[in-house]
Amino acid sequence: REAAAQGDVKAQYTLGVMYDERGRCRGKGVKQSHSEAVRFYRMAAEQGHVRAADNYGLLLFQRGAREEAMPYVTAAARRGDPRAQYLLGIAHFNGDLAEKDWRRAYALLTLANSTGLPQARAAIAQMDEYISLEERQEAQSLASTLKAEAEAARARELAAVDLALGTDNPSVASTPSRPSKP
């Protein structure tokens, strides 16, 4: 806690993970607290911690601050986070928080499903009723492109971290504190 209070980004992220009721470390050494998880993830995200930014966006979305969360969710989806790909895919399908684009929605949900995210499979099954076979085939091609782009983005960000820190620690990136909208 002392290190986090002094601005240590790793400590802030670690406390976020500990307070986060969704994580594997949930409640370890602290009482689970959604608001404390959000607070520590935000602190670390503002300093460029990529994983903290991803978790911060997902928690904001879960908390109902969906519009505020979307830049973070979009950035996480671009890096290949399946939870974010699922949310962004649903947003593209519905056209409420992102431009309506069924092909992109299907591609993102296909990527999320490929990691075993259970809700993605159900969403794809529902989308199959609305999206033509031709659009689904186009979405498969787009999914391959998005996957390659995510791997490249992740590699670039991790390389930037290594250069900035002079270490092999991939958890902190020298990126703006708030991701830009697509």
Radius of gyration: 17 Å
Total helix count?
9
Shape: globular
User: What series of H and E elements makes up the topology?
Assistant: HHHHHHHHH
Look at the structure and give the mean pLDDT. Answer: 86
Number of strands: 0
Helix/strand structural class = mainly alpha
**Beta-strand residue percentage:** under 5%
The amount of helix comes to: 55-70%
Poorly predicted runs:
168-182
The separation of the N and C termini measures 35 Å
Largest sheet: none
What does this entry look like structurally?
- There is one protein chain.
- The N and C termini lie far apart (35 Å).
- Helix 2 runs antiparallel to helix 3 (34-46), helix 3 (34-46) packs across helix 4 and helix 6 packs antiparallel against helix 7.
- It is built from 9 helices and no strands.
- Residues 168-182 have low confidence and may be disordered.
- The chain is globular.
- The chain has helices spanning 2-5, 9-19, 34-46, 50-63, 66-78, 82-94, 102-114, 118-127, 133-165.
- The longest helix has 33 residues, at 133-165.
- Helices cover 68% and strands 0% of the residues.
- With 182 residues, the chain is mainly alpha-helical.
